[in-house]
Structures are given as structure tokens and as C-alpha cells.
Amino acid sequence: MDTPFDLIIVGAGISGIGMAAHMEKLCPGQRYGVIERRAELGGTWDLFRYPGVRSDSDMHTLGFVFEPWRHEKSIADGPAILDYLNRIVDERGIRPKIRFGTRVVSADWDSGGGVWRLELETGGTINRIATRFLYLGSGYYDYDDPHDAGIPGAADFAGRIVHPQFWPADLDYAGKSVVVIGSGATAVTVVPAMAATAAHVTMLQRTPTWMAARPARDGLANFLRRVLPEGWAYRLTRFKNIRLQSFFFHRARADPAKTRAYMTKMTQKELGPHFTERDFTPPYNPWDQRLCLIPDGDLFAAIKAGRASVVTDRIDRIDATGVLLQSGQHLAADVIVTATGLSMTMAGKIAMRLDGVPIDWSQHYYYKACMFSNVPNLAAVFGYLNASWTLRADIVADYICRLINLMAARGATIATPVLPADHGLIEDEAFDLSSGYISRARHLMPRSASDMRWRLNQDYMRDRVWMKRDPVDDGVLRFDRAPAIMQAAE
Fold it and tell me: For residue 114, which of 4, 28, 27 has the smallest C-alpha distance?
């Protein structure tokens, strides 16, 4: 086995690229590598190829703190996001350090050697490497198996059923009737995009989702770029968008009734006579689940033009010609799109072990929103539920770089967040949304406490300040040297 890496990053999506860029800037003397199972970088943005695929957060916050977003559209499509990520990777010399087409099968912490021993699979060949620190930027959902809603009768359908996670390149839906099952971010993206050429698209939902229309272009951002240096314009726009998002989220939580009334009024204004309470007023409060962004009101425009419609009902079964509903209504379809959600997973389905013992994540607490109680030299990114994913990825990457540099300065090779068995922590809800994909996976996820050091907090502005001010050596994190290294030094 070769000399251990100082850091291995799993995943070349937003989280992994962000960490690599931070390593290049803040830890230039450290040897790192990136392992990516796909043939191209981008993660989510390379995987999803469905019509209209785009961000559901503005790119001034989904973009990195260190790299301005230059496109005119703030709500960007998949190809534009991939262009952004590829530019970062090439300008910073990261691409040669990415090992594509390689899957991390297992990772076993070796206490004696003070390293993670990784088993990698590339084209059927197994290789092994070691790394002192492991950084999981592999996201939170299963790339192989999306959520299966178990709709009866699918085998009887004479047309084609597709899931957005595996969109077929040869799917021709022009002039055809389409039923999209679901009402989340993917559904509200797919429906207007398909409606442009399909005969008609019906969005079939069990319950409505709160939707918010906003311009795809940020007028202030585009103006600032014309009159200010690029970096200043980006920082000001980012500051503005973070503040507005935080204000609206906390306002929704503090006064849900008023927020419901406001959002209902805005949707009524967008749809006019096409608005119905049954189809556009959810039974839950705004931000009990993540809001759906409607850039330039494209979904509402498709509904008003008669190219798309919304039906709220429960499915009885799929038959040869479409979807039969419990109300008795039948939706004829040539194509059915099952936008029924994702399946969450932990650690990218890597078999994780501590000295050969499998890790049960549900028995560990988050530490500083990225490490885990009594698990050494490991960090992972789980983005914000109420804001852009990258906001967390940025502050976590900065923290881990400071930790790695402190370890190097002290000659330490192991950093462990130590939590005794009699810790007395008050457990808190880390995932305080009622979304289906979260509810289905709560039993798999690490725990969270009310103590800031032991929680996955959901307040970016507070986290950013706290992560900077709270010392890395906080009395919780224990620093050691691996026994094998100590023996070699004697």
C-alpha cells in the first residue's frame, strides 16, 4: 500500500469540489485526492438529466463563497452549474487529483496506524489506499435506488414509466399526454419543461406544496456586476439573498398564519381563475416542508395557457392507458413520470467500520455539524434544509482545513470528538421538516442535541459566526498520535 494520503475526499460534486478548492488555498502542503464513482464531475448535476433540470436555490448562495457566479440567470439550469464547477476544477488544478469511475466500497478505521483504509473498485478491479483524514462529500441520497412509491398496476401500463433520477435520453414525449406523479421540486421543474412540447401534462399530487414564484434573473445582481468589481458585486448579492432567505424562514416559523395568507394571496395573483384551494393550499404551514421555487412563474404560465394542469387525488392503480384515481377519475397517459422522491442514505452507502466494527450512525451525535461523536478523522457534509446546500459546505470545508492545519502544527495524527457514555445531552430534532424523504430516513441518521457542539444546526448566519469563533481545540476534540507513528519515532 502506498504512503497514506493526508485527506481523501469522496465525491466530486459541490461538496467535494468545495473541499478540494479549500485544500488548495488553505492547506497547500497537504496531499489529497478525490474519489468519484461517475465518469464526470458534478454529482447531482451530472446525474440528473430530466427536462428543465435547474437549481432550486439562487446561485449567489448555491455558488461558493470563493467563486463569483457570473451567469445572468440566478436560478440556473444544470449545464450552467456544470460549467461553473468545471471552471473551478480547471482553474485551481483540481482535476488531476480526481480519480473518476472509482467507487469507495468500504472504509475501515485502523486505530493502530491512525488511518482510514479504503477499498476502491474501478472497472471490477479492487485497489486499496489509506488516508489519515476522510471527507465524505457524497451527498445524502441514494444514487442507485430512488424512492419507490409502490404504485400498483405499473406492469400493466402500455406506455412508458420513467423516474427523473434515471431519465432516458431516447424518451420522446412530443405531442403526447403526460402524467407527472408528485408535487416537489422535481415535479414543478419537469411539468413546465415537458409542457412546452407535450400535448398536455398533468401534475398529479396527493397534497399540494407551497410554491413561490420569483424572477430567474436577479436584477440587483446584474446591475451591481456592471458598476462594481466582480467580487464586491457577488458578496453584496450573496449577503442580500442570505438575509432575505433567513428573514422569510424565521418569519414563517414565527407567524405561520400570516405567512400562509401571504403565500396564498401571491399564488392566487399568479393563477387568477385557475387557482383552487384544494390544489394550491397545503394542509401544513410554509417551511414545515421545503418551499418549491417557480422561476419566472413558468409552472403557473403553463397552467394558464392550458398546457398543464394540477389534480389533487390519491391513486387507485395504474392501468394500460393511464392512472385511475380513488375518486373514480381516470387520467389518460402515454408517459408517466414518477417524481415520487429520493431515498436518503448515509455515507454514500460505503461500508464504514471502526477497527472492523460496523458504524451505526444512529448511535452517534453530530459534532459541529460535520464530524461525529467518538469517530476519529472523519467529516461529512449535510447541507441546510432551509437554505442552499453550499452554505454549509463552505463553512465545513473551512473548519476542516483549520483542523488539519492545527493537527499538523501539533504533530497530531488523530482528532476525535469525545462524548462519554454519561454525556447528559438533551436530544433535539436535527431534521425539523416533515418532508417524506426525511421522515423515511430519520432512523438512519446521526443524532443531534441542543448543545451547539453536538447538533446539526439549521441557522447559517449563526453557524458561520459560531464556527469561526469557537476554537478548534475546544476541550471536546481530543488530539493524539497513532501508536504506529509513535513507535517509529522512538
Answer: 4
Q: Nearest to residue 47, comparing CAs of 138, 180, 172, 154?
A: 138
Tell me the C-alpha distance between 37 and 122, whole Å.
8
Q: Using alpha carbons, select from 15, 71, 84, 8 the residue that is nearest to residue 43.
A: 15
Q: What is the pTM of this model?
A: 0.93
User: What would the grid cell of residue 408 be?
Assistant: 499538523
CB atoms within 10 A of CB 348: 22
Residues 268, 273, 274, 279: what is their CA dihedral angle, to the nearest 10 degrees? 60
Residue 122 DSSP class:
E
- The bridge status of strand 177-181 relative to strand 5-10 is unpaired
User: Among 118, 83, 120, which Cα is nearest to 99's?
Assistant: 120
Tell me the C-alpha distance between 226 and 424, whole Å: 55
How far is 272 from 280, CA to CA, in rounded Å?
Answer: 12
Q: Cell 451547539 belongs to which residue?
A: 452
**Domains located in the chain, CATH noted:** 5-143+343-489 (3.50.50.60), 154-338 (3.50.50.60)
Distance CA 292, CA 267 (A): 12
Dump pLDDT digits (tens) for 208-232.
999 999 999 999 999 999 999 999 9
pLDDT at position 432 is 64
Of 248, 241, 250, 253, the C-alpha closest to 266 is 248
- Which secondary-structure segment (H or E) carries 131? strand 125-136
Would you tell me the crossing angle of helices 14-26 and 78-91 to the nearest 10 degrees? 20
Cell numbers for 215, please give them: 424572477
Instruction: Write out pLDDT tens, residues 41-86.
Output: 999 999 999 999 999 889 999 999 999 999 989 999 999 999 999 9
CA distances in angstroms from 129 to 10, 118, 407, 430, 450, listed in the order given = 13, 5, 21, 33, 37
| Geometric angle at alpha carbon 354, from 351 and 360, rounded to 5° | 60
Q: Residue 97: its pLDDT value, please?
A: 98
Q: Under the phi-then-psi rule, with left for phi > 0, alpha for psi from -120 to 50, and beta for the rest, what region is 219?
A: alpha
Number of CB atoms found within 10 A of residue 466's CB: 16
φ and ψ of 382, to 5 deg: -130, 110
* Cα dist from 359 to 7, 228, 356, 391, whole Å: 20, 50, 9, 27
Listed residue (328, 319, 317, 331) closest to 158, CA to CA: 319
**d(C-alpha 12, C-alpha 20), whole Å:** 9
**How many other CB atoms are there within 10 angstroms of residue 93's CB atom?**
10
Indicate the SS3 state at residue 340. Answer: coil
- Say how far apart CA 302 and CA 484 lie, in whole Å: 65
Q: List Cβ neighbours of 400 (8 Å cut-off, separation of 6 or more).
A: 19, 22, 133, 135, 370, 379
CB atoms within 10 A of CB 158: 10
Q: What letter represents residue 127's amino acid?
A: N
